[in-house]
Amino acid sequence: MEYMGSSYAGEYHNGRMEGEGKYTLPTDTRYEGEMKDGMFHGKGTLHFPNGSQYVADWEDGIAQEGDYIFPDGLQYKDSSWLYCDGYDRRFYTEICSGLKPAGRSQLTDLDPPRQIPEGCYDCGDGFYNPNTRVVNDYEHNFLRNADDEEHEWIVRTCRKGWDEITGYRPKHSSKTS
């Protein structure tokens, strides 16, 4: 059954979503689990389009307790979080599989990393074209237009789709005679 861009496949009771079911939102995020009176209720998992999951116990549509799992299988822990802290900057795949030999450094947690189109940046949820100021997802579907703040952040911090020679750059002094 379809509900304003969302869909549901599962059990019903008295015409309401109740029992086991799968509810898909217009964003392609989907919930799989127990329903009661048309709401997430009981054990259920939100599956996000990027591959991450939120596994939780739900009550009347509200998560009471749950765990977030990243697409690579890393489970977020609020306390004792040891991933990518100030002392250990390895990616999760490097923690699990070990570091690569010298000269073959890993640039992202995804190995090999995504090929970024020429002139674009990888901003984490898609590719950003600074000329059009548009972020498209990795399948090249429109996500959003970047405002000035996001544009500046992406250009300053994200991985580029081109090589750039860097090295010593002397500061230019403005001496007047």
Main traits of this protein?
single chain, 177 residues, mainly beta, Histone H3 K4-specific methyltransferase SET7/9 N-terminal domain, 5-stranded antiparallel β-sheet, 2 helices, 12 strands, 9% helix
Structure write-up:
The protein has 177 residues and is mostly beta strands. It folds into two domains: 2-69, Histone H3 K4-specific methyltransferase SET7/9 N-terminal domain; 103-160, no CATH class. Helices cover 9% and strands 36% of the residues. The longest helix has 10 residues, at 148-157. The chain is extended, with a radius of gyration of 22 Å. The relative contact order is 0.07. The mean pLDDT is 85.
The major β-sheet equals: 7 strands, antiparallel
Strand residue percentage: 35-45%
Tally of extended strands?
Answer: 12
What is the CATH first-level class name of the largest domain?
Mainly Beta
Whole-number mean pLDDT: 85
Which second-level CATH architecture of the largest domain applies?
Single Sheet
Helix proportion range = under 10%
Shape: extended
The end-to-end distance, rounded to whole angstroms, is 79 Å
- Determine the CATH topology of the largest domain: Histone H3 K4-specific methyltransferase SET7/9 N-terminal domain
Radius of gyration: 22 Å
Q: Structural class of the helices, strands and pairings?
A: mainly beta
String of helices and strands: EEEEEEEHEEEEHE
CATH superfamily of the largest domain: Histone H3 K4-specific methyltransferase SET7/9 N-terminal domain
Spans of at least 5 consecutive residues with low confidence: none
- The neighbouring-strand order within the major sheet is 1-2-3-4-5-6-7
Number of helices: 2
